[in-house]
Amino acid sequence: MSMKKSFIILALAGLLGCGTQPQLSEIVNDMVVITNFDSNADFSQFTTYSMMIDTVWFVSNTSNDDVLLNDYTKMITARVKQNIDQSGRTLVGIGDPADIGVNVVIYNDLSISQTYYPGYGYPYGGGFYGGYYGGYYGGGVQTSFNQQAVLMIEFVDLKNKGAGDPVSIWTTNIGDLVNSYDTSTKTREAIDQAFVQSPYLNR
Amino acid sequence: MRRLVLLLLFVIVSGSASAQFYDKMFFVGWNVNSPLVNKDFVGKSSTRGARLGYRELVSEKIAVGVDVTWATFDDYTPRQTYYSPSGAITTDYTNYSNNYGALLTGDYYFFTEKKVMPYVGLGAGLAYNTYKVYYNVYASGDNVFGFLARPQAGVWVKFNERKNWAFNAGVHFDFSTARSKDFGYRNFMNAGFELGLVFLDW
Fold first, then answer.
1. Do residues B25 and B63 make contact, with C-beta atoms less than 8 angstroms apart?
2. Is the pLDDT of residue B181 over 50?
3. How many distinct structural domains can be found in chain B?
């Protein structure tokens, strides 16, 4: 190959490969916090809630564990509980009648990418209450999967569920748990932010 | 005195002789660009851009060839909360527009026997733009094609007559129909300047 051809090929390769997207380190300083709610739900009617403390549900393509229990998950559930308590609701024991069931789930090592849209289907699995796969919300997050992790917190309506599956009335998706800096601190801040940007939850 | 006259004659003759025109030229240039539309998405000037070009002389003052262009624009928006009727999202994000072009271009050279060679040109071809939003590890985007027009003007200067290359400086304007409804682009326009080299007798 002539030197001229080599020069052209190198120049073209250089031109097409130059910094056309941000470095990961530039964009993971804060977690993304997305919340969605059922606009038909009357949140003031829900006075009690039920959730697992210390452990969170776990969905992973690299582990058969269904739940996680460690300092990180203890922090997560404690922070969720604190925020729900501050919204004017009372925790009841698992199995006791509750108005809201709270699912806290980490989707890990799955190929997850999120895009925010005003309304579309929302497939997921896991969670104690409901346990169904798939749903549709007035707006939300389209989730597809790759090597990332997301914390999902979900409220389902146990008070008005009737005979069918309980309906999801509030969800938050927080991510990314894998690549963001100072994961524990940022997760705590993100949980707080989820409730701050959902003032309709307050009684 | 006679020696001085001979020396001056030599300089003049060699100067004009060195500027003989070239049949084939290859351009490589660094481009600085400023977006002119939809500055809410990307509004900052960018130093990340380049052009590669090739020309063949088809008449005494006209050369035609191809250009390949690239420009990347970006803009960062600090963390904020955005509300919708069904929820909210809190994030910071970085917008990117990567603009690529492939053009057929014609240049008109004002002189044929000078060391300093001003020219004007017009290119028309294909634009391929990618508009993307990056937030944490997530991204959403749109990849679009369109028509691209690129008028340009410049000058190349050959400082050393023995070398087969010259410095090139120019300005350009890019207009493309690479529209994206999702990201607010009816078209894309930018203006910029270029510094680079011309390889003569390529």
1. yes
2. yes
3. 1
Find the CB nearest B134 among A12, A21, A31: A21
Distance, CA of A12 to CA of A15 (rounded, Å):
5
Residue A164 confidence (pLDDT): 79
CB contact under 8 A, B86 and A32: no
Tokens of A135: 């749903």
**CB nearest B86 (choices: A21, A36, A193):** A36
- Pick among 3.40.1160.10, 3.30.160.670, 3.30.300.130, 3.90.1150.10: CATH of A31-201: 3.30.160.670
Taking one residue from A and the other from B, the number of pairs with CB-CB distance under 8 angstroms is 111
According to the model, what pLDDT value does residue A132 have? 33
Say if residues A90 and A47 touch (Cβ distance below 8 Å): yes
Query: Could you report the predicted ipTM of this complex, rounded to two decimals?
Result: 0.77
- CATH number assigned to the domain comprising residue B22: 2.40.160.20
Under the banding of pLDDT at 50, 70 and 90, the label for residue A58 is: very high
Q: Quote the domain boundaries for residue B133.
A: 2-200
Q: How confident is residue B152, by pLDDT bands cut at 50, 70 and 90? A: very high
| Residue A68: how many other CB atoms lie within 10 Å | 20
User: Measured between CB atoms, does B197 come within 8 Å of chain A?
Assistant: no
Residues of chain B positioned with their CB less than 8 A from the CB of A43: none
Q: What is the pLDDT of residues B128-143, one digit of tens each?
A: 999 999 998 888 999 9
Angle between helices A183-196 and A71-86 (to 10 degrees): 20
Query: Tell me: the pLDDT tens digits for B34-54?
Result: 999 999 999 999 999 999 999
Check if B83 contacts A (Cβ < 8 Å).
yes
CA-based max dimension of chain A? 80
Nearest residue to A50 via CA among A25, A18, A17, A84: A84
